[in-house]
Batch of 2 targets.
Target 1
Amino acid sequence: MTLPAPLYILSAEQISPQRPLCQDWTCCPRYPGGTYCRSDDPDFRRLLRPAEARRMGRLLKRAAAVSDRALAAAGADCPDAIVTGTGWGCVESTEQFLQALCTRGEHLLSPTHFMQSTHNTMSALLAIRTHCHGYNVTFTHGAVSFDCALHDAALLLREGSAGLALVGGHDEVTPDYRVLLRRMGYAGLAGQCPCCETSVALTLSATPRRAPLCRLDDLCLRHRPAPEEWADAVGRMLGRCGKEPADVDLLVCGHNGLPDNDRPYDGLARRLFPHTPQLRYKRLFGENFSVSAASVYAAAHLLRRATLPPALGGGAPQGTPLRTVLVVNHSGGADFSAILLERP
Amino acid sequence: MSSPVYITGAGIVSALGEGLSATARALASGTGGLGPLRFLQTVHREFPAGEVKLSDAEMAVRLGVDAATPVTRCILLGQTALAEALRTARIAPGNLSGAAFVSGSTVGGMDRSELFYPDFLSNDRRNAYIALHDVGATTDRVADHFGRFGYTASLSTACSSAANAIIHALRLVRSGEWDMAVAGGTESLTKFHLNGFNALLILDHEPCRPFCATRAGLNLGEGAAYLVLESAQSVRRRGVEPLAILSGGGNACDAFHQTATSPDAEGPRRAMMAALADAALRPEDIGYVNAHGTGTPDNDRSEATALRQVFGDALPPYSSTKSATGHTTSASGAIEAVVCLLALREGLLPANLNWRAPIEGMPAPVTQPRRVSGLRHALCNSFGFGGNDSALILSQVPQS
């Protein structure tokens, strides 16, 4: 049996509750408190042309900024493919159109808000800005939207249809949307890490050019697996990549403080990784539909550093070398994702 | 050349009716489904639409969905089409863990959200519908009605969502990751996008006339469709008869404007060329093109340019069946892929209804349904906002 062809994450950038567009969180992490924390936006006036930025909503600005930075770090102007994940898309525009529809009725509605309300607005904008006529899709599948996008990009690269993919995960949480997320029992609840926002872009390459951050060995996505089936699927993915559970140096997992959310992570750890240190990344990046993109971003940068920084704890002895990291996420107990990353 | 990916089942619901037979009959007789709105509560009664002629309650009863269960029209349409797709592929509910399910939508639960939004913001009465708002929840609810699929995913690329869902599913099967993948899309009419398209001034007050010199916009439609894709190995193992082959898919981005298509039609041309390359076919192999053909002045002009660029003077028979179904937006890629499947199965060229006069440099589309023999490959175009352009190629199963 052949190993799945490895791919490489060349660069990864974020705008989140952490200091934007840098990796300061590895030495001085912020632990957002309360139930709601918006992203620490960079000064977009320094990053985007004013004429361009005026026409963009907040999420579009973030998507443009992290993507520009990720492409520059990969030494690329134009990717071969753009694959985006988003839970609810450009919420600000959707809300403005919906609010107008509900209060003013079906007259004199703004076409601009409607045009920017579709989920694929970000992918389209990124294509226009980079003049990328290649493959372009947007996945919107709850909290594994980004994971689906990364999976699709990996399949695309492995079949040889593209050499470099720009993969992103973007969600904004407006004050009204935060109310909705709380009412549906998803985010911003007492006892849970706060409801935050995420914009992450990374470049995925079929070749290890320009000192990659890490290797992407494989992904495994499953719908409603029983706990033992999930452990079995993850174990088999490790096996395909010539690894055993004991080879995993760090589990990056999506605990958020709610028992229903945390149980599957604990179950998988108990079955396969009883002694593996964990990084519960949502303490740093909060909860939203795209936060799994931050888990891959964080894991990639930790692998570049090769050790778990003391500031992040994780129950690992200081200086523990990182060679193999497994990132696990799930969306409402329905859709599960595991991503195996490795030092190149 | 990779081994073929077979289509072994399909399901459809649209303004043309429920199911493959009703759809085939409507296509063969040239009967359109456009008419006044009956179920969508909007002040814009002036626009014809391709509404599915079933109420939410009627669909729920047929599907055995409890009347007390919160549900959206998008979910009910999706379940209606998926039921037929699984039945025609002879897949028993409860035996789905070896199959992936990939669905495209944009509106998701918007038909309820636009009614309940004031409640969403102010009280807990409609919380169940907040959880149904997003497209991922729509996909999982459509899927979970029938059992437990091994993998689910949702795409949202505006009007090409379903086509891209089918392309992702094709990749899942070709890569060997899944033996079987059910893919397509579902979309209900909503006030949200009816008003959005109205604000963009691209709705026609008359029945739409794609590729006609007098065209003045699109009519919205709704519906759902799914294809069951299967590897050769799985087809042999299950002993099922393939209906057709999904030979290829192409996706490209116009990278020009959020809603307008470029005059040089770069995205549509690249999407068709990519589909042909993926299917290892030449333009002259295509016997029928189901065009995206919305009926807006811009889209059809640009698509005509792209068709001429790809096919030169040898443009195969083409039509836009949106003149019969309305523009079913995110579901259109799957609904029209099923139209292509029926065209191949029945040797039928479906009509571009309401057409009156040619646009410059374009031959007339198929204006009356026509029986043909030897139709081997059909190309199906789907273009979306954001310049998300896709094309699929469906082919006859070679007689052995």
Target 2
Amino acid sequence: MRRASASPSARILLTAVALCLAAAAAPAQRINLPPVTRHRLKNGIQLMLMEYRRAPTLSVEALFPGGASGDPVEKAGVAAMTADLLKRGTSSRTAIQIAEEIDFLGGSLNAGAGDDSLTVSLSVLSKDADAGLNLLADVIRRSVFPPEEIERERQLALAGLQSLPDSPEETATRVATETVFRGHPYGVFRTIASVKRITRDDLLRYYQRFIVPDRLTIIAVGSFQIPQMIEKLRARFEDWTPSGSAAPTVAEARPTPRQLVLIDKPDATQTQVRLIRPAFRRNHPDFFAAELADAMLGGGFTSRLVDEIRVNRSLTYGIGSRFRLHKYGGFLAISTFTRIETTRAMLDALNGVLKRTAERGFTSEELQKVKSYLAGMFALGLQTPDALANILSDIALYNLPADYLQTYLTRLLAVPLADVNRIARAYCRPESFSVVLVAPVAKISGQLKGLGRFETRPITAVGK
Amino acid sequence: MTRHTLFRCAVCLTALLAANANAQTLKVERLQLKNGLTVLALEDRSLPTVAYYTLFRVGSRNERPGITGLSHLFEHMMFNGSAKYPPKSFDRIIEAGGGYSNAFTTPDTTEYYEEFSSTTLDQVLRLEADRMRALRLDTQNLEQERSIVKEERRVGYDNSVEGGMYETLWNNAFVAHPYRWLPIGFMGDLNAIRLEDARDYFRTYYAPNNAVVAVVGDFDTKQLFAKMRRYFESIPRQKPPRPVVNSEPPQRGEKRILFHRAAELPAVMIAYRGVSFRHADDPALNLLALILSHGQSARLYRRLVYEKQIAAAVNATNDSRIDPGLFTFYAQAQPSHTAAECEAEIYAVLEEIQRNGVTERELQKAKNVVRAGYVDNFKTNFGRAGLLTGYQANWGDWRRYADYLPRHDRVTTADIQRVARRCFTDRTRTVVTLVPQRNAQSGEAPR
């Protein structure tokens, strides 16, 4: 494969959504997507529905605000384990029966906890919509958390944490996130100790507080008639009594001071490199300017980082930048790796690209090209029901404007160079980035002289 | 990089059948240029975008010791300029056209693709023709990509426990066949490959008669074909590449390899001799792999992860290729359990299938999984383009995609039991056992 960067997979799916994707210079930039129908059930559940006719499939997401950021620190992992347990037994189905039913449909039923939400997602062929929705409603509403299933999931979670040192990439990303969000729930990850402390009562408490109809949004995209889909969801969810529980509250993430961290992985022949710094929340007026700056800095093959670090200097196979924006805060991160001997060369090169970007900004030529690029990628990326469901889910979770999809291109293309360069000045100064390296300390120390003092930890201490 | 072409195509195919009632009548038009280039066109004007896909019939299977990794290294070099286009212009043109490009190398093929706004199609045709005619093959291009590919090797194999085990498995399962090395190649060979090797490769394998192109999306087929003739037809045909000889001798006993690597949990990889994707038993082996490891209701997951709780992860894969490949298993042990326990339990599950077969419901479930999986893949221009090139290259006719679903639907539980008995014999087995060396601290902190 030619590319392995931190940016999303290059594999883009394409379907029959009609859209207009002219060059950036063209006057009309419109996306003709089917409309989103919003409907509220009597118990307050919000529905967002979009018909999607080309493929006979159904994608559903049930979005519950309040994800891992609701975990007590000493019991980090409660939300994730609750999500894992939803599929592990209901009042009418055993874990095996649930697995057997969804597998027989050739579909998927997954639950996962993100930073701001817990999401249960279903994907089936349209002909299996009823069977799939029955399962979805059952795992959401009637999960029973059998003790032996909790122990099974606990053992799997512990195995994952124990083998974390085998993945320098994952370790580097985790430590970088812990560093930039230090002191905030976004920076708290589950550990072997915290997973061991979680009890069934903790899971039930989370389930009763967060997996409730009060703030639930259900998103469905597929080949269905809107009234029929409303009816199907009403039949399965409208008799669910609201809990009256308070909405989850999370503090805004505050900027953290810069840190230098070196994680010792003695057998590595390559250094994993993360540069990370605080940014802002997802629902922020600078979102579009940040998208553009991000793509010019480390988005496609012609971005500054790929061009300088990979193409001109052959220092890595993969490099990318990413503004990762949550509900209450975000960060800008650069992810890459290089062989041990060129670690300093990599850090100096990154420093050079960032410094130039912060001081001189981007050019109007770069901006024009990246607008075409992002406009095209946005359109190409919207063409499967799963992708559409994901965007609708973001709209609900981050309170984005109702016409977000329809106005995305207009707003993207309207961003002036001055705004993008304001972002560059504010967020690209190299000295504002924390640095996280995963490498063999004994072989790398000499290269880090003069950079400041790195806090050093063995890789086996991460996640413990 | 090790993604398997045929499997992906197969996945695309059923999507087509499930998604479109008249799938059998896909309106593909075929153009055969005088220089041997095959072009397949599928118009779909529903979106103003185009997927352009090129498959060259060359992969690590066509390499020899000393140049392992060249097919993949060459794949990288294809993006760095040609006679009329200086370095970096390829990506600039594609990205400015609202698109992306990429490529991958398998043991059997090297495949290139891009999706972009249809207004960019003419530029893309010129770019593609120019790099097929006159790629810029110089030292700068080679050295730039050599370093990048070595980093790719380090990240995917030298610093990945599972990647290292996987490479060791294939290195040892084969004696004579080029499948014994992976497309990434050996580090020593990556260091040794010369510009001359790359030039030979280009002449031999990147000839128009060794390629299939599919274009799917928003264009007029007549105009497309006229342009294909104008831009591509004068690229000279070359002598067909020398056929790959499969001299792999029969395996007459189990091979066991210990793999020492810093790791936290024990793991094991097991391989049995597989079949060619053209073999009549290939669909039964695909379905068997699903019965064994698709989802949490599959036999291996249930036994090793759920019931016995000795494994943290387990999977089975039928890796069929032009020549017979491997049917492989991977299991990672839970803390305080061993690779040996996982291995023994996998064998117990296989023996049960050999003895008692599988149920009708299990087989139907696997067939449903195959069918449903296709829908997700076939909606896209990109997916259809990959499907067409794959069937044209591997089966000699793009229409053969229509056989895929019937081939799977015909499989019976008796077939599953028969192939399980034939495939899973300890004499043709190769086992790689991870011997974890504990991660330890290497030295003191820098000042």
